[in-house]
Design brief:
The protein is mainly α and 172 residues long. It has a domain of 117 residues. Helix content is 79%, strand content 0%. 20% of the residues are buried.
Length: 172
């Protein structure tokens, strides 16, 4: 793995933890809310970091960065960053906000009854049981990894297209 990839993966991971901490401390992030602004800010920061990493990677390869190499490097940055995100999420949900899962369950219960006050008790119990399973730390780690890889591949693809520079072939 190229040192630029490791460096920017570390930076991106630390910056994502710092952003998450700021969102948490300021109350911008709330479990089970839409969190549109948080998502938008995170994606923009991620794309900017990938652009800078890709530009530095291209410079390290003397200005030539084929698409495949760009994608591989930028995806590597995201994978390293995702490892930080997984560790942070586990710490957040078990240490800093140990009631995280229960908060989501309570909010889900309230929203269900608000939207459908006549919902049968067995359906409520089934929905709450599913919410409990889906918000367990292990399942959240699994979703973080799967969706992180999926959306990370899309972000890496976009930025690889932006920063790539193929070798020019001289005319003969």
């Amino acid at each position: 793995m190229h040192p630029v990839v490791r460096k920017w993966g570390l930076y991106m991971g630390l910056i994502s933890i710092a952003l998450s901490s700021i969102f948490w401390a300021t109350g911008l992030f709330k479990p089970s809310d839409n969190n549109t602004w948080v998502t938008l800010i995170s994606v923009v920061v991620s794309l900017v970091i990938l652009y800078v990493a890709g530009t530095e990677l291209k410079k390290a390869h003397e200005g030539i960065l084929p698409f495949g190499m760009a994608f591989k490097g930028l995806f590597g940055v995201l994978v390293i960053s995702m490892l930080f995100s997984v560790v942070w999420m586990l710490l957040y949900t078990t240490v800093f906000e140990p009631d995280y899962q229960q908060t989501i369950i309570d909010q889900t219960y309230e929203k269900m009854l608000e939207q459908n006050p006549n919902m049968p008790e067995d359906q409520v119990d089934m929905a709450i049981g599913l919410t409990e399973k889906m918000t367990s730390p292990l399942v959240m780690v699994l979703f973080t990894v799967v969706f992180g890889l999926l959306f990370g591949a899309i972000e890496a693809l976009i930025m690889a297209l932006v920063v790539r520079r193929e070798e020019a072939f001289p005319l003969r």
